């Protein structure tokens, strides 16, 4: 059952609650006069999108990022109150993070999953999403608690990602049974990790998954600012996150953007995006760049969806379809399903093909 959770400082809770109520009233008023933001959205989806937009805007306007994180965590909703998943922190000697293990699962796979949040947030809502994802995929997930910006600019996050991947392999995981993925900035990290594995002397995983991934930390595509009115994340915020990621390292946008990396001989890449999100144009550009490199890539875009619409789980048709697509892609990439991936109306680019019995 869906549940709203409030926690932390009372002043943060009260402001968040007021924001939620004001957003709800504004959305319902607009719909009463026949002016939904997007006709294909439910009232609940529109309220959720605009509420989280306002929460991010206020969190980033506070005096420091620690307070912003606390404010963002003060009120959030989850669509599954108690997923059938055992969550446990990593053991001594393991990279810092959490395991999300579905009860009674039979999967031989491990999903190394990097959370989103612009590299600056790791909200409680993200942990709930990962738990829900583990339940719906029926696959154990290890989610590293990688270092955040602005306190820790690049390459801290990539270093932490490589440590986590190396640890999984060193603990006995077969790379053919490991999938690497993430959402938003976590998708950026998964894709950057994939591009750096060869230089690190590490084998490729079976598959890389990017959910609404940030593929260029600079300016790219009309949607980055043109879809501001629809999305919960705003174009100007991507530039702030990019500045924090670069810090004073002297790194360029190209240095830190997946779209400027080489993916020749890399694992297959499965990308998902919403057609109303700010990142959709750069995700499309990234998919085409992979195709031009000869990499294996599939891109699915749900026309009316926003950034990270997957968080709605079973309560939204498009989210349910997207997570089912992840499950099918994982089975395909790891040899558990000898068929081909079904192409749906959301498929914009399909470059995943079998060669004999292998990918």
TrEMBL record:
<protein>
    <submittedName>
        <fullName>Alpha/beta hydrolase</fullName>
    </submittedName>
</protein>
<dbReference type="InterPro" id="IPR050300">
    <property type="entry name" value="GDXG_lipolytic_enzyme"/>
</dbReference>
<dbReference type="GO" id="GO:0016787">
    <property type="term" value="F:hydrolase activity"/>
</dbReference>
<keyword id="KW-0378">Hydrolase</keyword>
<dbReference type="Pfam" id="PF07859">
    <property type="entry name" value="Abhydrolase_3"/>
</dbReference>
<feature type="domain" description="Alpha/beta hydrolase fold-3">
    <location>
        <begin position="111"/>
        <end position="310"/>
    </location>
</feature>
<dbReference type="InterPro" id="IPR013094">
    <property type="entry name" value="AB_hydrolase_3"/>
</dbReference>
<dbReference type="InterPro" id="IPR029058">
    <property type="entry name" value="AB_hydrolase_fold"/>
</dbReference>
